[in-house]
Specification:
Elements lengths: L2 H24 L2 H15 L10 H22 L5 H7 L6 H11 L1 H9 L2 H13 L3 H8 L3 H16 L6 H19 L2 H7 E9 L1 H4 L5 E4 L1 H10 L1 H4 L2 E6 L2 E6 L7 E8 L2 E8 L2 H5 L3 E2 L2
Parallel strand pairs: 1-6
Antiparallel strand pairs: 1-2, 3-4, 3-7, 4-5, 5-6
Helix pairs in contact: 1-2, 1-3, 2-3, 3-7, 7-9, 8-9, 10-11, 10-13
Length: about 290
């Protein structure tokens, strides 16, 4: 086997791991594939004999590509939510993105998207792929000690400051049951979960109406949940301001949050948030 064929074989063996690294950094399969492809193009133009560890070299190239993309995103943070949604394109497949997010955790992708580029790189590489701080320091042009602090700060953001309590665990079960019922179109299950006088309020950014939309009563809210079953398939549970909630985040970019109020095990109120300013004020962490 000649050198070029050997490199191609080695690259294909590393491809799944490289794709996993890039997807967790970028939250987009197409962008992750682009970063991995760029690594192959770079590899095709170097002398393999000068590479001490091919997996480490490929991880470094992919990570630097991701870092460049993340820094470009950071400069575009002032873009409106509408512009971000438009950039997804008409071929955006919510179902496919939901399946990808399931493999990683949608809440984790949302939190990662809120991190700065350096924090995201440091956390993903060290905490998720065990890359030494010394290697990450070279990518970020920081000292290993500085990278350790960056990763620690990111870790606190991802995990949140509060530890789950018994009440949080019970509320999470109710939110998960609500999500399952909405996904499955189970009207009777929704009737059991919701308080008879439950109130759902969706802000104008979600409803598209000039003013917030309010639904009152268990049957009205249950029917509304069933009408949103398609969106529910791309939704997952997360901690929002320390309480179990639901998040919809195509490509890890937060779009809608549902927060819940409880009386015992019954849901008494649901607040559906889509306004960008309100979303930015929420503290989201993974379970």
């Amino acid at each position: 086997m000649d050198e070029k064929a050997w490199l191609a074989q080695q690259f294909e063996e590393n491809r799944p791991r490289l794709r996993s690294v890039a997807y967790r950094m970028l939250g987009s399969l197409s962008e992750a594939e682009d970063a991995v492809q760029e690594a192959w193009l770079r590899l095709d133009g170097v002398d393999a004999r000068e590479i001490e560890s091919l997996p480490a070299w490929l991880t470094t190239v992919v990570s630097r590509q991701c870092l460049n993309q993340l820094r470009t995103r950071e400069r575009r943070r002032e873009d409106s939510l509408e512009a971000q949604v438009f950039e997804r394109g008409d071929d955006f497949d919510l179902e496919a993105e939901a399946q990808l997010a399931d493999s990683v955790g949608l809440a984790l992708l949302v939190v990662l998207d809120s991190l700065g580029p350096a924090e995201r790189i440091a956390f993903v590489l060290h905490d998720m792929f065990a890359v030494p701080f010394e290697d990450i320091a070279v990518m970020l042009d920081r000292t290993p000690a500085a990278v350790r602090q960056i990763a620690s700060r990111a870790r606190r953001r991802v995990r949140g400051e509060q530890q789950p309590t018994a009440d949080v665990t019970r509320s999470r079960q109710a939110v998960e049951a609500y999500l399952a019922a909405a996904r499955g179109g189970d009207f009777e299950a929704l009737l059991q979960l919701l308080d008879p006088d439950v109130v759902l309020q969706a802000d104008a950014a979600v409803s598209g109406a000039p003013a917030p939309v309010v639904l009152r009563g268990v049957r009205s809210v249950s029917k509304g949940a069933l009408l949103a079953s398609a969106r529910a398939r791309g939704t997952q549970v997360a901690l929002v301001n320390g309480a179990p909630a639901l998040v919809l985040a195509p490509r890890g970019r937060l779009e809608v949050v549902l927060t819940f109020t409880f009386d015992g095990d019954r849901i008494t109120a649901i607040d559906v948030v889509g306004d960008p300013e309100r979303l930015r004020a929420l503290e989201i962490s993974a379970f």
